[in-house]
Specification:
The chain is mainly α. Helix content is 72%, strand content 1%. Helix 8 packs antiparallel against helix 9.
Length: 334
Amino acid sequence: MSDTTTVRRGATTVSPGIQAPVRDRLDLVLENLRGIAVSDFSMIEEVNAYLLDVPGKLFRPTLLLLASDVGGESSEDAVTLGAVVELVHIATLVHDDAVDHSVLRRGMPTVNSLWTHQIAIIMGDYLYSRAVTELARLGNLEAVRVLATAANTMSVGEMRQLLSYDDVTYSEAEYYRLIAAKTASLMSAACEMGALAGVRALRVPFRRFGHFLGMAFQIADDMLDYAGREDVTGKPGGLDLRERKVTLPLVGALREMSPPEVDQIRHVFTLTDPGDDEVGAAIDLVRRNGGLEYARRKALEYAGSAEAEIAGLTPGPALDALSEAVVYAVDRSR
């Protein structure tokens, strides 16, 4: 990987400055990832080849490696832990796409759209189990505990999301609980596992840093859906509305809408397949009623909390990159 290359798949990118301090080890993460996921069964290898041939942005392994470098020398296990975290992340995406019947991920067809939903679910299970097997091989019980807790929390989060569909009354507190489970839990685990491979005394601040970063990251991601940034998300704009998902921009805007405008949103949520005009009008209502501004304020609050957790830690390239990761989390359009 050259110095000017950014790890990418489809439309996703990470600012090169964030990954610069760990770029060489990210190559090793990819090698480990492919080795851990290998199988002698042809169907699994076929899906593996599709998932791993063009890597994702490797944001979570990047966080893990950077956290392991702060305040001391990272252990050799950090690369393997980074691969395991990414493997779990890929598994969750494969499962999420199957549950949501999504056809695109990172601007490319999903596993369930190319094969079947059954294959996607089984493939996600395989990747999860390979990740746990690799952790067991390392004999790092604390890392097993951290990652297993995150995986369990993400599963509960997925169930919470299933129960939130069509519910325009979904509260802000419920939204935060959902994204804490679905997104922030794995980022928190990645950062804590980084400390396990580096300075163990930093486990708690890095666990909290990852949580706050993940919250900011997901809020910003949900904003992109209303901002129409398909070039950033790899998904069509308005997809959350089409899937009748309530996210923070909508929650914030609904408070300011007139009763007829709320009824208009409710109508969209009754439609199995809303048209472009109906989705576009709903997006416009969210924008005009300050939904994006409200969500951005909340994302910045979480970003500030993330920064506070690492303030005063040993300065250096790794800490600088983690600070840049906070900026990236709330401004994916850079």
